[in-house]
Amino acid sequence: MVTSILPLRVSDAVVKRRKKRLLGPVSLDVTAEGFTIIMGPNGSGKTTLLRVLHGLERLSSGQVSWTVPLADAQIRQAFVFQMPIMMRRSVRDNLAYPLLVHGQGKTAAYQAAEIWADRVGLADALDTPAPQLSGGEKQKLALARALIREPEIVFLDEPCANLDGRATREIEAILKDAQAAGTRILMSTHDVGQAKRLADDVVFLMHGSIIEHTPAKAFFTGPKTPQATALLQGDIVE
Amino acid sequence: MIRIFAVIFTVLGSAAWAESLKLAVTTSFHNSGLSDILLPAIKEDTDIDVQLLVVGTGQALRLGEAGDVDAILVHSRAAEEAFVAAGYGTRRREIMYNDFVMIGPADDPARIGEAGTAADALALIAQAQATFVSRGDDSGTHKKELSLWDASGATRGGDWYRPVGAGMGAALNTAAGMDAYILADRASWLNFGNKAGLDLLFAGDPALFNQYAYIPVNPGRHAHVKADLAIALEDWLTSDRAKELIDNYMINGETLFTFNATNPS
Amino acid sequence: MGEIWEGLSAGFWLVVTLDADLVEITLRSLQVTLSAVVIASVIGLPFGAFLAIRRFRHRRATIAVLNALMGLPPVVVGLVVYLLLSRSGPFGVLGLLFTPTAMIIAQVIIITPLIASIAHQAIRDIWAEYHDLLISLSTSKRQRIKTLLWDGRRALITASLAGFGRGIGEVGAIMIVGGNIDNATRVLTTAIALETGKGDFALALGLGFVLIALAIAVNLAIHTIGRTESEGKW
Ligand SMILES: Nc1ncnc2c1ncn2[C@@H]1O[C@H](COP(=O)(O)OP(=O)(O)OP(=O)(O)O)[C@@H](O)[C@H]1O
Ligand SMILES: [Mg+2]
């Protein structure tokens, strides 16, 4: 096997836009294995952090480094956006697209598309134009499209935000399968229950800074900061 | 990209006719409908496709100067003679004439029907400040109108004088819409479909005669013009066959044109 | 009212009897405008996409100029093309004045900015939508452009159709550079102007209805082709 792109090392990363500091400085080590949950109130910088890790956000200072050159690392990761981006094509073509642009043959790509549509419950919608899907179906499609190339690491930005309980459980099962198959997962969520079910470790963000990064057990039993305590108690975090 | 264009241009360019001649004519000539009779006969007798560019006299002369047409057929003597004198045309050949008529609202508020001459008629219009539509497009008809105004000694330019800068038909439409007076050539008037409340009020003054002349563009200035075809067309236009067709062309039982070409000496 | 009615019936009879002149004029209208649309699309669509995707120094100025060119008055274009193609102009030797080619050139100049501008807006919108995804999927520049053009094809067809609409109904420029020569450069719009000039409103209106019907037919045809090729709308 080729060398892993992990660990991913973030040191003193800062994102500023129009003089305003959106994130950082943050430092974070993403080890080769595990399921990291990112929590924090709206606007705390979860999306920004995930985008920084994936290389979508220009850094004002600091570094993000993989064990391999950036271009090699980039093709071995995937991202599920908070607002699913639906290409103006059928579900089938959306799913096959990442495979096709990376040189996979058509037959194999469309075969994989059908398998993944089935796994996320979109088998009946294969020929539906993706923009016509419901909000939850779009999220499922985005997830399947991210996982179809079996990335080494996948970033998920609130992938279950619009899903009902059953769909959430199905997605969680798929993510656990992926984790078992060796995929490193970083995911943001507002759902404490989901965090408890999935997390190996938790990153807690406030105002663009990581104020807590601890193993899941420690975070849920004895949060170190009052904000995290409030979150877990169901209070409003200011 | 450039090559694609080159190909397109050559294909379309060569699609132009082999034996065609471009003739700039005045709107009044074309609106008379005579060209619909003459062109097929020309094609039959000489095998020339005459492509008519229907424009005002001013533009016809410009087209000839620029070499964009092979010959012109217009009616504005002074301008034609200047054109030939400047070397743009080889010679001026008179072909035929028709006449101008004065059109106006049927109840004739300016009473031009009683005028003695065309100039008097215009003077009456100016006096009554009755609405008058002028071609205002530097055409032969427009030039004729201006010379008549000059002869009348009347001042024009008030609210009632409306230069429209349009062809004969469009100007007639405007006059019909405004119930105005207008100077038109008889052929255009007879062929005009939208007479509304207008009527022919004054005609017959020799000053209103309208001589058409044919001028081939000088190949000495523009080597590409089809001088041979232009001469062949001139021969045809001055032939007995043309005389017969022109003299016998009628609208509503009225003769429009009188052939008066002299055979070449 | 009566005149409109007469125009309708005149148009109706011209069409049902397949009047030879009408057929010829209509075909020439189509030939000129479709050629112009094809050429203008070949230039305008990729140029619009290029403007949407690539950043370069005078990009904003270029877009502003493009949008201004959209409003070019056709008669001015006609006049300039006329002066360029006139025998006494710089391209006089080509002998193109008063030919269908000259009309195509004028129409290309008139509709290219329109097509490019609509294509630019359409591709810009899709690019804004797809940007993060296409970057995230590590697509190459070529793949991005291909994807945007393909997924934007409906909008691009619309751009070309808008160009067709502007071209087929245009009279000012082609009157000047084509000369409205019977059997050579007469098209529907110049024929309408001519018949109006003769005061023959019924025939002019009849031709007008044929023109409108033609524009609708071409639009419908292209939309039908667009839909059968992949179902659904977005
Ligand atoms: N391009 C940008 N320009 C300026 N400010 C931005 C930009 N993108 C995000 N922000 C701001 O940065 C802050 C962090 O945004 P981010 O999207 O990372 O929050 P979040 O934690 O994901 O919130 P949510 O839970 O609502 O998704 C917010 O205050 C947001 O308004
Ligand atoms: Mg967010």
Structure notes:
The complex is a heterotrimer of chains A (238), B (265) and C (234). Chain A is α/β, with parallel strands linked by helices and 238 residues long. Chain A contains nine helices and nine strands. By secondary structure, chain B is of the alpha/beta class. In chain B, the strands form two sheets. In chain B, strands 1, 2, 3, 4, 5, 6, 7, 8, 9 and 12 form a ten-stranded mixed sheet that branches. In chain B, helix 6 packs across helix 7. Chain C is mostly helical. Chain C has a single domain, classed as MetI-like (MetI-like fold), CATH 1.10.3720.10. In chain C, 78% of the residues lie in helices and 0% in strands. In chain C, helix 2 packs parallel to helix 5, helix 2 crosses helix 7 and helix 9 packs antiparallel against helix 10. Chain C is globular. Classes of the chains: A alpha/beta (238), B alpha/beta (265), C mainly alpha (234). Chains in contact: A-C, B-C. At the B-C interface, helix 1, strand 2 and helix 8 of B face helix 2, helix 5 and helix 9 of C. Adenosine-5'-triphosphate binds next to helix 1 of chain A.
Shape of chain B: globular
Give unreliable regions of chain A as ranges. none
N→C terminal distance of chain B: 56 Å
Instruction: Give the tally of β-strands of chain A.
Output: 9
Indicate the low-confidence ranges of chain B by residue numbers: 7-18
Number of strands of chain B: 12
Helix content of chain B: 40-55%
Classify the oligomer.
heterotrimer
**Name of the CATH first level of the largest domain in chain B:** Alpha Beta
- How many angstroms separate the termini of chain A? 47 Å
State the CATH class of the largest domain in chain A: Alpha Beta
Arithmetic mean pLDDT of chain B: 87
Reading side by side through the largest sheet of chain A, how are the strands ordered?
Answer: 5-6-7-3-8-9
Q: How big is the Rg of chain A?
A: 18 Å
Strand content of chain A: 15-25%
Number of helical segments of chain B? 11
Major sheet details of chain A: 6 strands, mixed
Please tell me what the overall shape of chain A is: globular
